[in-house]
Design a protein that fits this description.
Layout (H helix, E strand, L loop, with lengths): L19 H4 L3 H5 L2 E3 L3 H17 L3 E8 L4 E5 L5 E2 L5 H13 L8 E4 L10 H4 L5 E4 H10 L3 H11 L1 H11 L5 E2 L4 H9 L12 H7 L2 H5 L6 H5 L5 E2 L1 H12 L6 H12 L18 E8 L2 E9 L6 E9 L6 H22 E3 L1
Antiparallel strand pairs: 1-12, 2-3, 2-11, 4-8, 5-6, 7-8, 9-10, 10-11
Length: 351
C-alpha cells in the first residue's frame, strides 16, 4: 500500500538485496547458547527511549520487541490496535503458503490478473496495463512483499479466498491480535472517500481515479488520519504482529520451506529503507515489511544482530501522526530500531 496522500505516489524507496544465507541461523541451537543479562531496570530504560521516539513521530506509536533466542520481550502499547496498511500483506502471504503446505495450491500455478484488479503501486499496474496478464502465485508473492505491489496483493487475496479465509487461517494457526477485512482496492477507496463499484460491476481503482477530473480528485476526502485510524478494520496489535513474525522465523505455523520463502523475500524488501534499516550499522540484515497510508507509517520485521547475538523481532506502528512529513515518521521508527538493536547487542551474551 505505502500510499502518500496522492494515491498515484507508491512511496517506494530504493533498496539493496542482502544475503539470505547470513540471516537464516538455526535459532534452536542458538537458544541454548545465549542469555539476556539485562534487568527490569535496563528494559525500563529502553522503554523510556521508545516513548521518547514515539513523541518524535507526532502521532501514536506502538512497539513490540522479541529477542528470539532468549525469549526476552518488551512492548509499548503492545495490545492497542493500529491500522496495518501494507503490513497486512504478511498474513496474506502466510495464508497462501499455508494452503501450499496443505497441498491446496502450488506456487507455480498461473493465475489471471484482470483489468479490474489494477491498483496503483510499483509493480504490475506500473508496467502491465493491458489485458492478457497471467502470473504464477510465486511471481505475485514476491512483488507483494518486496515492492508492496497492491495489484499482486489483491489477486492473491482473491486466490486464497478473501479476507474471511485469511482470518480463519490466522485463527486456526493460533495467531491473535490481527484482523483483515478489505483488499487494497477497497481500503484505499475508503481512505480517499471514493464510492465502491456497484455490485457485479468490477472496476479497478486505477480506472476510476484516472477518469476523475482534477476538481473531483481535489474533492476527495484524503488524509483523514484520525477517522481512518479509529476504524477497527484491517488492524493489528504490535504484539500480534511480532508474534506472527516470531512464528514464521521459528517454523511454528508453516513448513520450514514455506517459512524460508517468506524470510528470504522479506530480506529483499525495497520499501522504507529509512525506517527499520535507516540508522542501523551498514550491512545489517533486516527482513521487513512496511505500510503507509495517511497518518499511518509502519515497519515490521526481524533484525539479525552481530557477533552471533541472535535475532530481534520488531514491530513499529505509528497512527494519527499530525505531520505529513514522512521523513519525520521514518526517523522515529529508525531511532526505535537502533535503540532496540543497541540494547540487545550489549545485553545478550554467549554462555
Amino acid at each position: 500500500m505505502n500510499l502518500k496522500p496522492d494515491p498515484r505516489d507508491p512511496n517506494i524507496f530504493p533498496g539493496a538485496t542482502l544475503l539470505a544465507c547470513l540471516f537464516l541461523l538455526a535459532t534452536a541451537s542458538a537458544h541454548a547458547e545465549l542469555r539476556h543479562i539485562g534487568s527490569e531496570q535496563t528494559l525500563s530504560a529502553l522503554k523510556s527511549e521508545l516513548l521518547r521516539f514515539g513523541e518524535l513521530s507526532e502521532g501514536v506509536m506502538g512497539v513490540s520487541l522479541i529477542h528470539l533466542e532468549t525469549r526476552t520481550r518488551l512492548n509499548m502499547r503492545g495490545e492497542e490496535q493500529f491500522p496495518m496498511a501494507s503490513t497486512y500483506k504478511i498474513p496474506t502471504a502466510v495464508t497462501l503458503l499455508h494452503q501450499v503446505d496443505d497441498g491446496q495450491r502450488a506456487l507455480a500455478e498461473l493465475v489471471e490478473v484482470r483489468q479490474a484488479d489494477l491498483v496503483p503501486s510499483q509493480g504490475v499496474s506500473a508496467h502491465f496495463r493491458h489485458p492478457g496478464i497471467k502470473l504464477s502465485l510465486h511471481n505475485l508473492l514476491e512483488p507483494m512483499l518486496i515492492v508492496s505491489d497492491n495489484t499482486a496483493t489483491d489477486v492473491l487475496m482473491r486466490e486464497v479466498g478473501g479476507s474471511a479465509t485469511i482470518n480463519r487461517t490466522l485463527d486456526r494457526l493460533g495467531v491473535t491480535g490481527i484482523r483483515v477485512d478489505r483488499n487494497t482496492n477497497m481500503l484505499i477507496r475508503d481512505y480517499l472517500g471514493m464510492d465502491a463499484p456497484a455490485a457485479g460491476e468490477p472496476r479497478s481503482f486505477l480506472e476510476d481515479y484516472e477518469a476523475m477530473s482534477a476538481e473531483e480528485r481535489a474533492g476527495l476526502e484524503t488524509y483523514r488520519s484520525n477517522t481512518f485510524a479509529d476504524d477497527p478494520r484491517d488492524t493489528a496489535t504490535p504484539n500480534g504482529m511480532a508474534e506472527l513474525l516470531e512464528a514464521i522465523w521459528t517454523n511454528d505455523i508453516l513448513s520450514e520451506q514455506s517459512s524460508e520463502i517468506i524470510r528470504d523475500i522479506m530480506l529483499r524488501c525495497e520499501t522504507g529503507q529509512d525506517r527499520l534499516t535507516g540508522i542501523l550499522p551498514a550491512g545489517t540484515p533486516v527482513a521487513h515489511k512496511t505500510g503507509t497510508i495517511g497518518g499511518t507509517s509502519n515497519d515490521v520485521g526481524v533484525i539479525e544482530l552481530p557477533h552471533g547475538k541472535g535475532h530481534l523481532v520488531i514491530a513499529v506502528f505509528i497512527k494519527k501522526s499530525e505531520t505529513d512529513d514522512y521523513g519525520i515518521r521514518d526517523r522515529a521508527i529508525a531511532e526505535a530500531a537502533r535503540s532496540a538493536y543497541d540494547y540487545f547487542v550489549f545485553n545478550v551474551v554467549s554462555l
